[in-house]
Design brief:
With 549 residues, the chain is of the alpha/beta class. The chain has four domains: 89 residues, Hemocyanin, N-terminal domain; 162 residues, Rossmann fold; 162 residues, Rossmann fold; 86 residues, Rossmann fold, CATH 3.40.50. Helices cover 44% and strands 10% of the residues. The strands form three sheets. Strands 8-7-6-9-10-11-14 form a seven-stranded mixed sheet, with helices on both faces. A five-stranded parallel sheet has the order 1-3-2-4-5, with helices on both faces. α4 packs across α7 and α5 crosses α10. The N terminus is likely disordered.
């Protein structure tokens, strides 16, 4: 990746320069730059440094009363001064990550048609079939490293939001830049507008997509085939990251395209990697290694079974038989325990169906199976009831409770509930962040099993190596790397993940191990640098203003 050209002759002048978010420095343009670029009179007379500008931004950001207002404010900052946006986010990542992504991005998507300011990314509609390559070529940048795409059918735990799901790829790519230094100019968010079955949205006069029933079946598949082929043709070096596709499409599309293009599904593979890391870290606290754990999942969608497959892969890689590894993972869906006697199981659930009695109730399943870890990926809030959590605590000295559903309203239980019902013995993490819990004077800091720990670094490693394919081994290595980044001091606070303000270093370290796998497996199209660690850090974008004169 190359630095942008900073010769004055290559840039717009005057008001056009100020309206270019990638180049605009606002009040940070120096006197010499203002003179050379025709900016005198177009800006207030005083010159401010970037740190001084950041003070103003933080004051205005914090003055907003609601998280949604803060979300809109940051979008507007990104639209007018991209460099200052990223500088502010990077320097305040713990405060701003929950705003630019989960949980606030969910509310942003729900309200997207009502808070829309200016277009960002590409919308590819079903009516565009036959000309998708042409539409992709409308994008002003020719060199793209990462494309994040959604069809909006399963946005977080909120369901079908159609074209308003654009907030997801926009937010994910902001994290690629903030956390892994992928150049913003080389990131492309795309939403596939294939309709929505959300009647409320279709009746909303401000809905941004075509208000039609969702396209399905062979029509949908042919549209996706054309889209993937177009991405491969127009942006041949790009990673294609699938986000928030419904389970019935997510699993099969991953299997269909993973060997054709450098792609992955973050909900399946990224989630699996961050959860595997959490289980490894939790084992350091409970003194129960992964090979000795029995894991019960509430929810058996693509994310849940994706976690299960990565756990099985990790266990078999360390010597366990595949049959025994599958016996470590148990699933409950809306109809009860996933067992062989059921005739209603979807294909993606069948590998995890065991010979066991049918059990409909979660607490009864816990009693029968005696799991060491309970993982919620159900999308159903408050399903880890007091009785359920106490049952886990009766069985385990340090029960692992992972309430992973997003946004916060869909979390299976809160951090306070998990700690209160277990007298502080739970090893807890969640999909959305919770405040520290004061339990009788003991402050417990819960971890957030956020995919942002994985996908930015993994993507950076693929970019650094130009890996032709993204493999399961890469996600397993990323998980092991993430778990190794958790210090004993962090574990003592209650968290099984590193502090968020360490995410940029974590991403760089994950990128190195992922790139190593690509070079070792013969998947890399780039030449291996002598010092891979230094090279990875050298290609990471830093949001500093260019000098124009």
């Amino acid at each position: 990746m190359s630095e942008i050209n900073t010769k004055p002759s290559k840039f717009p002048r005057g008001i056009d320069l100020l309206h270019n978010p990638r180049l605009n420095k606002g009040t940070a343009f120096t006197e010499a730059e203002r003179k050379a670029l025709g900016l005198h009179g177009l800006l207030p007379p005083r010159v401010f440094s970037q740190p001084e500008q950041k003070i103003r931004i933080l004051q205005a950001f914090r003055a907003n009363k609601s998280d949604l207002e803060k979300y809109v404010y940051l979008i507007e900052l990104q639209d007018r001064n991209e460099t200052l946006f990223y500088r502010t986010v990077i320097d305040n990542i713990t405060e701003m990550l929950p705003i630019i992504y989960t949980p606030t991005v969910g509310e942003g998507c729900k309200r997207f048609g009502h808070i829309f300011r200016r277009p960002r990314g590409l919308y590819v509609s079903y009516g565009d079939r036959g000309s998708i390559s042409e539409i992709l070529r409308n994008w002003p940048e020719q060199e793209i490293d990462v494309v994040v795409v959604t069809d909006g059918e399963r946005i977080l735990g909120l369901g079908d939001l159609g074209a308003q799901g654009m907030g997801i790829p926009v937010g994910k790519l902001s994290l690629y830049t903030a956390l892994a230094g992928v150049y913003p100019a080389r990131c492309l968010p795309i939403t596939l507008d294939v309709g929505t079955n959300n009647h409320e949205l279709r009746d909303d006069p401000l809905y941004l997509g075509h208000p039609i029933q969702r396209v399905i079946g062979s029509d949908y598949d042919e549209f996706l085939d054309e889209f993937v082929a177009a991405v491969r043709d127009v942006f041949p070096a790009a990673i294609l990251q699938f986000e928030d596709f419904a389970t019935h499409n997510a699993v099969r599309l991953l299997e269909k395209y993973r060997s054709q293009i450098r792609m992955f599904n973050d909900d399946i593979q990224g989630t699996a990697s961050v959860v595997l890391a959490g289980l490894i870290s939790a084992g350091r606290v409970s003194r129960i290694e992964l090979a000795s754990q029995k894991i019960l999942f509430l929810g058996a969608g693509s994310a849940a079974t994706g976690i299960g497959h990565l756990i099985v892969s990790q266990l078999t890689a360390h010597g366990m038989s595949e049959n025994e590894a599958f016996q470590r993972c148990w699933f409950m869906d809306s109809k009860g325990l996933v067992v062989n006697s059921r005739s209603d199981l979807a294909e993606h659930k069948k590998p995890f169906a065991h010979d066991f009695e049918e059990i409909a109730d979660l607490r009864d399943a816990i009693r029968a199976l005696e799991p060491t870890a309970l993982i919620g990926v159900s999308g159903q809030g408050q399903t880890f009831t007091e009785d359920v959590v106490r049952e886990m605590a009766d069985i385990n000295e340090r029960p692992v409770i992972l309430a992973l559903s997003n946004p916060t309203s869909r979390s299976e239980c809160t951090a306070e509930q998990a700690y209160t019902w277990t007298a502080g013995r739970a090893i807890f993490a969640s999909g959305s962040p919770f405040d520290p819990v004061d339990l009788g004077g003991r402050i417990i800091v819960s971890g957030q099993a956020n995919n942002a720990y994985i996908f930015p670094g993994l993507g950076l490693g693929v970019i650094a190596s130009r890996a032709r394919r993204i493999t399961g081994d890469m996600f397993a290595a990323a998980a092991e790397c993430l778990a190794s980044e958790v210090s004993e001091e962090t574990l003592a606070t209650g968290s099984i993940y590193p502090p968020l303000d360490q995410l940029r270093d974590v991403s760089a370290n994950i990128a190195v191990v992922v790139a190593e796998i690509a070079f070792r497996a013969g998947l890399a199209e780039a030449d291996r640098p002598e010092d891979l660690n230094s090279y990875v850090r050298s290609i990471m974008y830093e949001p500093n203003y260019p000098d124009f004169v």
